[in-house]
Amino acid sequence: MFDPDRDDDPGTRPFYLRLLAVALISVAGCVALWPSVTGFSEGVDREQGCVAILDGWHADPGGSNAAEVVTVERSVCIPESRHRLIVSGLGLGALAVLVGGATILRRTRTNLRPTPASVAGT
pTM, whole model, 2 decimals? Predict the structure, then answer.
């Protein structure tokens, strides 16, 4: 049966609010990743340029073969890089908990809301 009063669902949010939520979550994710993707200087005279997302994954130098000489040069970056990776990981984890909790809370509230048919008594 055609019923124009039921064409618009008052419980749905406008498209732009959803778009705003996605944009805010994206910006928060970028802020959480910022420590890992920005460069910093290390070394005795701060002569070594480092980026945490590249340098934090290297192993600590332990050998003396030619392939590990490059690793020794980059080893001054490793402690600060690992710290920055941990900070970014904690930020992303907190963001995931907040977004997940908000989603669960919204779903629970939506499921507890009476349907328009039950309110109308049909």
Answer: 0.70
